[in-house]
Amino acid sequence: MPGALPLGDPAPTDGRLPADLPVDRAVPFSAYLHVPFCRVRCGYCDFNTYTATELRGTSQDQYADTLIREIALARDVLAERDGLRPLDTVFFGGGTPTLLPPGDLARMLRAAVDAFGIRDGAEVTVEANPDTVTDDVVRTLVDAGVNRLSIGMQSAVPHVLAALDRTHRPENVGTAVRAARDGGLDVSVDLIYGAPGESLVDWERSLEAAIALEPDHVSAYALIIEDGTKLARQIRRGEVPAPDDDLQADMYELADARLAAAGFDWYEVSNWAKGPGHGTQSVHASRHNLAYWRGSDWWGFGPGAHSHVAGLRWWNVKHPAAYAQRLDLGESPAAGRERPDPEARTLERVLLLSRLAEGLPIDEIAEAHRERVAELISDGLVDPASALRDKRVRLTLRGRLLADAVVRALTE
């Protein structure tokens, strides 16, 4: 089942922002629209998603109308604080957004654009399972204003997909990419490495298959075992082996080398994009994810979705039925919120910005920890030229493999 929500202060039922919150309309604004439906639950996943048998008291058919009510509430809340501004990015995530009729996704997008406006050239992304992408689906999404499709490939090897409980047919990834290309969409493919039973040869095969699809963007994430998942229980019972850290490191290095040779430039530890432009300036880098990493403002719509405006964070109730019930009553679906103190915000900035190719400005590190940059350079974790010339902490390849250790050194 999905993980627990964080602890925090109670959120007001009207959703209003604190009177002293310094909302700045110059800060970029994004929307995340969560679609919490999946045909099956993957064994490694602890996202806030639900299969048909877990919905209890709600239905997919009503979901778009429910979420549109939250969009209306958000508009009123932001308008009251003069915080309305056009959307820079929109991201439909899940779950599997394309399990909904594409017309529902179009209505949700139209409601967001009507409420906030949208900037010229804004990035609008939909996540998709390969089996759900057809020419008709793509046409509807393109007509609605979607310009980017993120396809959950995960692997090209059947036994690896089986270990992850992924049910899509590997050949349908190519079909989905072709449909997206024919519709004029940018294409990203997502990969996962380190699944039980996956060898370096298996991973190389998946990389080669992904590169052969000629996407604009590739995400490659190491498998993480989350408490409460089916996979965690299987490992605890000794049914499958836990991920091997050394093997995952070898897989990461192989991914970086193969993707670089194919013209992809890393811009975040787990993300690579093609040009024009390099690193975070690549036209194909995920601008929506960059908004998170850089600490911009965003409103997360849907059950369990998280939001951030001017340093205030809040999160919605998790179950779709509870989410719908709140909105049916004219109430905010927010379950709790918090305003992190300066120390927590500094830790978050170090954690996020250090993962980017553009690096972390040294002057954002607490003064007591700046002397450790020299130690990290000596250990081969930080690029010396970037530190000396640009006054930024930029991770080397070895530093990317040990990114958590770099953060600890700069914050503890």
Automatic annotation (TrEMBL):
Gene3D superfamilies: tm_1862 like domain
Lineage top rank: taxon: Bacteria
Annotated Radical SAM core domain residues: 23-265
Matching SMART domains: Elp3
Keyword Iron attached: yes
Main location: cytoplasm
Leader sequence segment: none
Localization (cell): Cytoplasm
The keyword Heme is assigned to this record: yes
CDD domains: Radical_SAM
Keywords: 4Fe-4S, Chaperone, Cytoplasm, Heme, Iron, Iron-sulfur, Metal-binding, S-adenosyl-L-methionine
Function: Probably acts as a heme chaperone, transferring heme to an unknown acceptor. Binds one molecule of heme per monomer, possibly covalently. Binds 1 [4Fe-4S] cluster. The cluster is coordinated with 3 cysteines and an exchangeable S-adenosyl-L-methionine.
UniProt similarity note: Belongs to the anaerobic coproporphyrinogen-III oxidase family. HemW subfamily.
NCBIfam families to which the protein is assigned, alphabetical: hemN_rel
Protein name (Swiss-Prot/TrEMBL): Heme chaperone HemW
Organism: Microbacterium bandirmense
